[in-house]
Each structure stands twice: as C-alpha cells, then as structure tokens.
Amino acid sequence: MRFDIITVLPGLLESPFAHSILQRAQKKGLVEVSVHNLRDYATNKHKSVDDYPYGGGSGMVMQIEPFANCIESLQEQRKYDEIIFMTPDGTTLNQSVANELSSVQNVIILCGHYKGIDQRIRDLYVTREISIGDYVLSGGELPAAVLVDAISRLIPGVLSDETSALSDSFQGDLLDAPVYSRPADWRGHKVPDILLSGNQAAIDNWRYEQALERTKKRRPDLLED
Ligand code: ADE
C-alpha cells in the first residue's frame, strides 16, 4: 500500500516511519510512504501556501493552488483510491475505519495548518475527512502518522505474527486482557496462577473473561451492539 502525504512540515514526518514496524514494512516493500513538501508546489515568488481569509477574520487559510498542483501531479503517476484530509471535524478514526482503509492500494493524505484549508480543496479533491479525536492539534502531521500506523499494521505480512493484529484491543469489539511477563513474583505482586498453569484452554477462557470485564468497566459503549 502506498501513502503520499502532503505537508508544509515534511520534517515532522521523518521519524514516525523510520523505526520499528513501519520501517520494516517499508523495507519489505509492503508499505511505501512518500512525503511531499507543499511549498514545492507553490507558484508564487515567496513559495507561500496560505493567504488571508475572504470575509475577514483571524488566521490564514491554506490556498487551493499548491494542493491542486501536488494532487494532480500525483494523479498523473497513478490512480488513487482515497484522498484523505486530516481534520478535527472529520469522522473519528476507529478500528473499523482502519480495517476498511487497509484494503486499498494508493492513498493521498492532506495535512492542514493555520485556520484551515480552502473549502474548495475539500469539495473538489477530498474523498474522506478523518479526525483522530475530539481535540485540536497544531496540524495534520501527527494525525497522518497515526492513521498510517493504524492502517499499515493491518496489512498482511507487516506484523510478524499475523494473528496479533487480530487480537488487538478493538478488533472484535473487546479491549485486550491484561498481560504479564517475568518475574512471576515482583515484590510480592504475583502473576495470576492461571497464566502459569500450562492449561491453554483455561488461559484462553480467563483472557476472554478479563477482556469482557475490562470492556464492561472502561468502554461499555463497545458492547452496546
Ligand atoms: N488536525 C488538528 N487536529 C486534528 C485532529 N484531532 N484530528 C485530525 N486532524 C487534526
């Protein structure tokens, strides 16, 4: 799967994809992430990408032209399944949105800044608007990194043990059961006996009960349907 991310701050997106699972996914050729500097697509002398809002008001608005130039030059190279704008007023990202997006091939992600982006970009190019939660960040870069991570780990072969994405919290609408590792006794705080029992059926049953209990307590909304 290929992600083309359009941003005015490409440096912000260097690190998130250069480590661990996302780095390995790229090395294996399962995921490709290409970051584009929006300023390279500005045609004016100062390479500015924003201007005052029509009608007045505070803050600057990101203009349509640089985004249109960048998107159209990408579209000349390949067909895109989705053009996603990261914005706090979009649909909230959840596991089912990530699952759905993990089955497509090519995605463009637009990162906004300042007061917002010219509405015509949203009307003419964007196919989906996604928020990562009900809070406002300084720009769309961190949300874009969150989205790419959430999608990429679902692509077959990205995780070494494919079943581990399937047993994540939220897959199957239950939160994860608690997990423990050595030592079995730390300052008198013991790992539950059942996990040391070697009885896999009993362990699976315990994990299910724990997951159910945790979900009831913390996220009863997940059990409503
Ligand atoms: N840009 C700023 N805040 C955001 C959020 N919560 N989700 C997605 N994009 C954003």
Can you characterise this structure?
There is one protein chain. The protein folds into two domains: 2-152, Alpha/beta knot (3-Layer(aba) Sandwich); 167-223, Trp Operon Repressor, Chain A (Orthogonal Bundle), CATH 1.10.1270.20. With 225 residues, the chain is an alpha/beta fold. It has seven helices and ten strands. α1 (20-27) links the parallel β1 and β2 (32-37). It has a five-stranded parallel β-sheet. Strands 3-4-7 form a three-stranded mixed β-sheet. It has a two-stranded antiparallel sheet with strand order 9-10. Helices cover 31% and strands 19% of the residues. The protein is elongated, with a radius of gyration of 22 Å. The chain has helices at 20-27, 64-77, 95-101, 119-124, 141-152, 163-166, 200-218; strands at residues 2-7, 32-37, 50-51, 61-62, 82-92, 106-111, 116-117, 128-131, 185-186, 189-190. It binds adenine. Adenine (ADE) binds at residues 86-88, 131-133, 135-137, 140, 143. Adenine binds next to β5.
- Give the C-alpha Rg: 22 Å
- Please state roughly what percent of the residues sit in beta strands, choosing from under 5%, 5-15%, 15-25%, 25-35%, 35-45% or over 45%: 15-25%
List the total number of helices: 7
> Major sheet: order of its strands?
2-1-6-5-8
* Helix share, percent: 25-40%
Summed up, the domain count is: 2
What labels describe this entry?
2 domains, Trp Operon Repressor, Chain A, 225 residues, alpha/beta, Alpha/beta knot, 7 helices, 3-stranded mixed β-sheet, 5-stranded parallel β-sheet, binds adenine, single chain, 31% helix
